[in-house]
Amino acid sequence: MVFSYDKLRGRIRECFKTQEAFAKALGMSRTSLNLRLNNSAEFSQNEIIKAAKLLELNTVDIDRYFFTLEVQKTEQRGA
Fold first, then answer.
1. Closest CA to 5 of 55, 49, 60, 70
2. Could you tell me the domains of the chain?
3. Contacts of 35 (CB under 8 A, 6+ apart)
4. Taking the chain (79 residues) in consecutive chunks of 10 residues, what is each chunk's mean pLDDT?
5. Most exposed residue of 13, 33, 49, 77, measured as fewest CB within 10 angstroms of its CB?
């Protein structure tokens, strides 16, 4: 599955200004965070919980920030 982290990226900018500052607060490298935001690695449950606290997310909002599926673009075929 491929997840869209656009909403999460926006919240990171609102709260931390940079992904690097957020990664540091989360206790990981900027590279590790980028791997997760680009779907090359998965967020662990502990990372999601810590991130939600740092970003002051309600538990009901976690789905929208971490589990929104990426909409796949489809090619249109000519007739």
1. 70
2. 6-66 (1.10.260.40)
3. 41
4. 96 98 98 98 98 96 95 63
5. 77
